[in-house]
Design goal:
Blueprint (H helix, E strand, L loop, with lengths): L9 E6 L3 H10 L5 E6 L2 H10 L4 E5 L7 H10 L8 E5 L8 H6 L2 E6 L4 H65 L6 H35 L6 H13 L3 E7 L6 E7 L6 H4 L1 E2 L4 H9 L3 E3 L12 H5 L3 E9 L2 E10 L7 H62 L4 H31 L8 E4 H18 L3 E5 L6 E4 L1 H17 L6 E9 L2 E8 L8 H4 L21 H11 L3 E5 L7 E8 L10 H10 L8 E5 L3 H13 L3 E5 L2 H11 L3 E5 L7 H10 L7 E6 L4 H10 L3 E4 L4 H14 L1
Parallel strand pairs: 1-2, 1-3, 3-4, 4-5, 13-15, 19-20, 19-21, 21-22, 22-23
Antiparallel strand pairs: 6-7, 6-11, 7-8, 9-10, 10-11, 12-14, 15-16, 16-18, 17-18
Helix pairs in contact: 2-3, 6-7, 6-11, 7-11, 11-12, 11-18, 12-16, 13-14, 14-16, 19-20
Length: 747
């Protein structure tokens, strides 16, 4: 049996309020290997249990304050002390002790005073041995766990070492195989360095090619004509790929032949033989026929026989690409060198990318050219349309003037003539609007701003719209600021804006409606609005109503006609003056309101009084005396009706139907005024004016151009040719009288 010094000592808690009992317990358990920790009360025992662990608790039942049962109850409540064995010590006999309560509290046994040492030692020894065995089992388990951990770590280390050895063997085997395959090339480090350098070089080359493609695309997209840019494209490709020869052919649409458009690296003596290729001739012809690239270099065989151009140019490598867009071959691009080499896939892809960009640029150029040609033809068509529409209107207007003057006593005829005259004016207005829209969209309208008063502009617009307002029996009210408001605008165009708004309101307001024109200052702006109680606008039309050819409801009022141009002109002219126009309506049948905002000039200045000028001219109109007039017109209807109108006004009229007779009559008869049509046979009106002005006998005759073309450039050309005035067909009696009065008064 091992000695007491060899037995592991364990802690035992002895709880008794009698010190002698505690000393006795300590003495009895000395040789059992127990460290007896004494506590004189339950409170002290609980404090010690918080500080350390014990193998056994000897607990006196009867103690002052907290007795043994209460202390045991608190011990069992803590997780840490719940399983510590408790032996109760009591001085009562078994019959007096509540043994069952002790066992309920977790007691393992009872000792009755006086304590029999052998009994105490036996019972305590059992629990101490049990605790030691438990600790030994725990220690052995820990040692086993540690041993297993060390074994696992050892096995893991062995497995890792085995894996590393395996990897090392595999790496050595791979290196051995690589070394054998590369026939004892340089050391692995040198190889890696070389690969890195090659990768960097490839990346640099790739970036350079991307920059080349981006620069080429930028040049082609920014250029207005793709063909001259082919030279610079050739230069860039040649510098990048080290090529010497570049050839660019464009396909002719008529016969399919190829024309040399751009080239570099060929001698001038070779150019005549290469300038034109027939279909299927040479490399370019084969590429066009097959619509795929053709490559001849040191590493690839040609797709066919050796081309004729290669020996002449002395080329050792050549790549030719078709320029294809929308399934159509536009031409070819070829790149070559006189040095024997093999094109890499990257180089071929780069050349293909450049060719694709060139094809896109050429297609873009073709489409832009087609759009420009369509726009030019549209403008020519509109000008011709205006001319052809104005020519028939001219005799109609003159005839109406003649009827009005000859039938003054017949009210029925006067009403009929007035109706026809309104329709002629409406037709003339449509033609003028159509041409104005065309000129504005092409940027051909040039504003001539001057300082005018708001009152003058409004008066001019109201006078222009008075016929339609009166015809539809509308009530027009005008509200203007009491002070004078100055505007820096083109008076003709701004009067047209206000007149178009009034005309639009009158047109889309049922008979007997109300129209109100209001203008007021708002800060540094003039706000002018035209409001009506007409058919109104749907919400979706508030913005679209200003678009070209858009009408409020094409089926609602077709009797009023129109092409949907008036409001488009309003928006364009207002924005050209730096202003803004908007539409507002509460819905259908609730009327509409159009508001124009215009900037006011910073400083006031004297204004151009338009109505006063008109009134002054009208006041002097009656002073015009009968004139000797030569009428030059090849259209019999226009010539005869205009002659009748002039004779009714008291003028003496002579006629000419062509330019040569017109020049002869002017020089021989020397009329005061010659009304000359521009579109004459043989000698046109411009030539007539030049010949008359070139002769000394034609200096006194005032020349007036009559034409269906009303563009500013037409007016300018007429004045430069020698005309004194320019009138657009159909000419009203008032306009003609004003021009004759002005020219003859000035003379």
């Amino acid at each position: 049996m091992p000695s007491s010094s060899a037995i592991p000592r364990v802690d035992v808690l002895a709880v008794d309020d009698t010190p002698a009992n505690l000393r006795s317990l300590e003495a009895l358990m000395e040789d059992l290997g127990a460290n007896v920790v004494a506590a004189s009360s339950g409170d002290e025992a609980l404090r010690l249990l918080l500080e350390r662990d014990f193998a056994l608790i000897l607990l006196d039942v009867q103690m002052p304050g907290m007795d043994g049962y209460e202390t045991a109850s608190l011990i069992r409540m803590r997780e840490r002390t719940r399983h510590i064995p408790i032996i109760f010590i009591t001085a009562f006999n078994r019959s007096e002790v509540n043994v069952s309560r002790g066992y309920e509290l977790g007691a393992v046994d009872y000792l009755f005073k006086p304590i029999v040492p052998e009994v105490l030692r036996t019972k305590v020894g059992v629990f101490l041995d049990l605790h030691r065995k438990k600790e030994e089992v725990r220690r052995q388990a820990e040692l086993l766990r540690q041993a297993e951990t060390r074994e696992h770590e050892r096995q893991l280390a062995e497995a890792r070492a085995h894996y590393e050895r395996s990897l090392l063997q595999q790496e050595m085997e791979r290196e051995r195989k690589v070394s054998e395959a590369l026939e004892q090339r340089a050391q692995e480090l040198a190889r890696l360095v070389q690969e890195k350098e090659q990768a960097q070089s490839a990346l640099h080359e790739s970036n350079a090619r991307l920059r080349l493609l981006a620069d080429t695309a930028s040049r082609l997209l920014k250029g207005t004509d793709g063909r001259p840019l082919l030279e610079s494209v050739h230069q860039h490709i040649s510098e990048h790929l080290g090529l010497e020869v570049c050839l660019g052919y464009l396909a002719r649409e008529l016969n399919g032949s190829l024309e040399l458009t751009a080239h570099s690296g060929i001698l001038p003596t070779m150019r005549p033989r290469l300038e034109r290729l027939e279909p299927g001739q040479g490399v370019a012809g084969k590429v066009v026929a097959e619509q795929k690239r053709w490559v001849l270099d040191a590493g690839a065989a040609a797709n066919g026989p050796v081309p004729d151009a290669a020996p002449e140019l002395g080329l050792a490598a050549l790549a030719c690409y078709p320029l294809i867009s929308q399934g159509r071959v536009l031409g070819t691009l070829a790149f070559g060198t006189r040095t024997m080499r093999t094109f890499t896939e990257d180089e071929l892809s780069l050349m293909q990318g450049v060719c694709d960009q060139v094809a896109v640029a050429m297609e873009r150029e073709r489409l832009i050219g087609a759009l420009r040609e369509a726009d030019r033809r549209k403008d020519e068509f509109l000008a011709m349309l205006a001319h052809e529409l104005r020519n028939p209107l001219a005799p109609v207007r003159s005839a109406l003037e003649v009827f009005r003057m000859r039938m003054k006593q017949d009210d029925v005829l006067q009403r009929t003539i007035a109706s026809a005259d309104r329709q002629v004016a409406h037709m003339t207005r449509l033609v003028d609007d159509l041409l104005d829209v065309s000129r504005i969209t092409r940027g051909k309208v040039e504003l001539k701003p001057v300082l005018v008063t708001l009152t003058d502009l409004v008066e001019g617009a109201v006078q222009a719209c008075e016929p339609i307002i009166s015809q539809r029996h509308h009530e027009l009210s005008v509200s203007l600021p009491s002070e004078t408001v100055m505007l820096n605008v083109d008076p003709t165009r701004m009067t047209q804006v206000v007149a178009n708004l009034l005309h639009n309101a009158a047109k889309y307001t049922p008979s007997g409606g109300r129209i109100h024109l209001n203008a007021e200052r708002q800060g540094d702006e003039l706000v002018l609005s035209v409001r009506d109680n007409g058919i109104g606008l749907r919400p979706d039309m508030l913005h679209r109503v200003f678009e070209l050819f858009v009408q409020v409801d094409p089926g609602s009022d077709r009797a009023q006609g129109g092409l949907g141009l008036g409001l488009t002109l309003v928006r364009s002219l207002v924005e050209m003056h730096g202003g803004h126009v908007s539409a507002r309506s509460e819905g259908l049948s609730k009327g509409s309101e159009f508001t124009v905002r215009l900037p006011l000039p910073a400083e006031p200045a004297p204004a151009l009084a338009i109505p006063h000028m008109v009134k002054a001219a009208a006041a002097t109109a009656h002073k015009l005396q009968p004139l000797h007039i030569l009428l030059v017109e090849d259209n019999p209807d226009i010539r005869e009706t205009l002659r009748d109108l002039l004779e009714l006004h008291g003028h003496r009229v002579e006629e000419a139907s062509d330019g040569r007779s017109a020049v002869a009559l002017v020089l021989s008869q020397r009329p005061q005024v010659a009304l000359v049509d521009i579109g004459l046979p043989e000698l046109d009106g411009y030539k007539v004016a030049e010949l008359v002005r070139a002769s000394a006998g034609g200096s006194d005759t005032r020349l007036v151009a009559l034409t269906g073309y009303g563009h500013p450039e037409d007016r300018k050309r007429a004045l430069e040719a020698g005309f004194d005035a320019h009138l657009v067909k159909p000419v009203s009696s008032d306009d003609l009288s004003q021009v004759l009065k002005k020219l003859c008064t000035a003379a």
